[in-house]
Amino acid sequence: MGFMIFFGATLPPTRSERCSRFLKGYRKIWTNSGPRLSKIMASPPDKPIGSIARAAEIGQILMRHGAKNLAGALGFIPSSSNVIDPREFRPAAVVAFLRDIGPVGIKLGQLLATRSDLFTEHWITAFSTLHDQVSPVRFADIEPVLASSWGEDWRNDFAQFDEQPLASASIAQTYSAKLQDGSEVIVKVRRPGTAARMEADVRLLVRLAEIAEARSPDIARYRPVEFLRTFGRNLAWEMDLAAESRACERIGAYLDTIGVRTPAIHWELTGLRVNVQERLYGRPASSLGSPSGDPPVAAFAKSYANAVLRMIILNGEFHGDPHPGNVFLIGEQDVGFIDFGSVGTLTKTRRDEIVRLVLAIAGEETSEVADVLLAWAGAPKVDRDALAVDLDHLIGEFRGTVLSGIEFSQIFSRVFDLLRDYQLVLPPDLAILLRTLLTAEGVVRSLAPDYNIAEDTRPIMTELFAERFSLASARSGLKKLRGQLLGLSASLPDILATANSIAKSGYVPVQLDPLSIEQLAGLRNERQSLKGPLAAALIVASALLVDQSWLLAGGALVIAGVVLIRKS
Fold first, then answer.
1. What is residue 261's three-state secondary structure?
2. Could you give the count of Cα atoms lying within 13 Å of 133 in the half-sphere of its Cβ?
3. Among 69, 226, 396, 424, which residue is least crowded by beta carbons within 10 Å?
């Protein structure tokens, strides 16, 4: 899967000719391109980047990496074929293309590196070579952002401000500082011009994905447009530094209940393009050695795994990028999380689906497992019999294992393999969950190779199931049922009166409003037969009524028979 074709091609002779062709072709494909992506990407007032100009740059990158067929199919250059064949994609060339696009390409590649439900191992390995490391922007370019956020006298709020950045990434740079009250803080500042460039790039990629979907059924089934729009929303989140701060406080409130630290936010200095947060002192997980040479490491790895799993399974909102640079050992064994720019959210519906999946696997209910997977994939046409056989094999791997002993991440690993085999695409909102699980697994393995994450998963899953089947949950269900029964009771007198009338007269009253009759007549004039669907609906109604009233059920069947027998 992918949506770039790369193989050998010769560049046109001059730069002016290249630009002319790219601009001419892109004007053609960009006409009537639909709503701007800015509707889903909240950007600051950065200077916008013209779509035509950026398209010309992207076109040059395509040609530089030999994507002549793709450039032709997408309309950048004249071509006799509009067919896009995904079998021609090459991992090394796709990675080179993403790297040359810039920050958006690199972040997209990093996300794709976690999609083992879509890509085989050699693709994942290629995507994993993309790293979000950029040269820092000069402080002279950063200071106007601080002045526009805090005012020209912004330095009066600080006793000290180190102008050398601690870290530099594609979206923001971080600085150490000290407030006037002596509090040591981290200042995160969005790089100038970032929002406009990323918005233009994501908007362009979405448009190209729309064209690719229209011209290749093989690509369309992977829903790249939906994936890229979700990717764009996540980037918008990362660029809103106030949203990151709010997530830090929300998730931090939960983590605090299990003894995990997160930085406090200084809201008087925090906004869209700048945030200021407490500086946590500790050892980053990336600097920790093996547990044999460092006793606290094993306990730290366990606490880290426990925190990640509890955020996902019980809290439903979780740190989306818990890599070793974002996790600290504080004191002897306390865990601290920083940088909540990437956050994953599992709705209650999605969490319930995950619970259904785990329960179905534990209960060896192949049909239920298939229902969940196919619903996630958008109910595509697949060989359900073959899928059932493979699911039975998957369930067999867990056969005989008690529910609390099933490892959460292991289930996902096997399920994702199956999704890829049947080209069943994981919903975009679950992609960040996969990335988080894979990142956490890698961190734990590097710190404590012998540690079994299942030991932490078992009690957490047990808590989840206890929550699902608790007295409080039962009360909630009964409350909903009571509301439904009250609604039914309000209609009960009318229902009983109707049933009594039918019993006395032997006739079932049917009422049609004049507008409905006119609509039915119009449909008949258009020679659209309603007998079959109407009879089927009446038969279904009969089946539903049989437990309530055999008389009503019989009446519905009689009417169905009349509909089928009566001549048009």
1. strand
2. 3
3. 396
Cβ 376 vs Cβ 427: under 8 Å: yes
Q: Say how far apart CA 113 and CA 119 lie, in whole Å.
A: 8
Q: How far apart are alpha carbons 311 and 248 in whole angstroms?
A: 12
The closest alpha carbon to 382, from 424, 426, 427, belongs to: 424
Phi-psi bin for 66: left (phi > 0), alpha (psi -120 to 50), beta? left
CB 280 within 8 A of CB 328: yes
Give the pLDDT confidence of 181-208 residue by residue, as tens digits.
999 999 999 999 888 888 888 888 888 8
On whether the CB atoms of residues 311 and 257 are closer than 8 A, the answer is no
> Which of 146-160, 446-460, 496-510 ranks highest by mean pLDDT?
146-160
| Residue 296 token pair | 């606290």
Q: Which residues contact 144 (CB under 8 A, 6 or more apart)?
A: 192
CA distance 209 to 100: 18
DSSP 8-state assignment for residue 230? H
Pairing between β-strand 167-168 and β-strand 274-278 as defined by DSSP bridges: unpaired
**Which residue has tokens 């997160």?**
262
Rounded to whole angstroms, what are the CA distances from 393 to 178, 379, 398, 523, 564?
59, 22, 9, 50, 46
Phi, psi (degrees; rounded to nearest 5) at 279: -90, 120
- In 377-513, alpha helices (H): 384-398, 408-421, 428-447, 454-468, 471-505
Whole-angstrom distance, CA of residue 359 vs CA of residue 361: 5
CA nearest neighbour of 418 among 362, 351, 366: 366
Reported as type and span, the H/E element at residue 284 is strand 283-284
Please state the pTM of the whole predicted model.
Answer: 0.65
Is 176 strand, coil or helix? strand
For the chain, how many residues are written?
Answer: 568
pLDDT at 272 over 70: yes
Which position has the token pair 């990434």? Answer: 169
CB within 8 Å of 446: residues ≥ 6 apart: 324
Residue 333 · residue 355 · CB < 8 Å: no
Instruction: Give the model's confidence band at 124: pLDDT under 50 very low, under 70 low, under 90 confident, else very high.
Output: confident
318 bridge partner residues: 344
Kindly state the percentage of the chain with pLDDT values over 90: 19
CA distance 110 to 122: 14
Cα gap 104→202, rounded to integer Å: 7
* Measured distance CA(76)–CA(9) in Å, rounded: 14
CA separation for the pair 288, 251 (Å, rounded): 25
The rounded distance, in Å, linking the Cα atoms of 346 and 138 is 39
CA distance 175 to 142: 11
Pick from 280, 268, 282: nearest CA to 180: 268
Cα–Cα distance for residue pair 94/67, rounded to 1 Å: 10
106 strand-pairing partners: none
Does the pLDDT at position 50 exceed 70? Answer: no
In 3D space, the residue among 501, 491, 508, 504 whose CA is nearest the CA of residue 542 turns out to be 508
Q: Do the beta carbons of residue 93 and residue 4 sit within 8 Å?
A: yes
Supply φ then ψ for residue 329, to 5 degrees. -95, 115
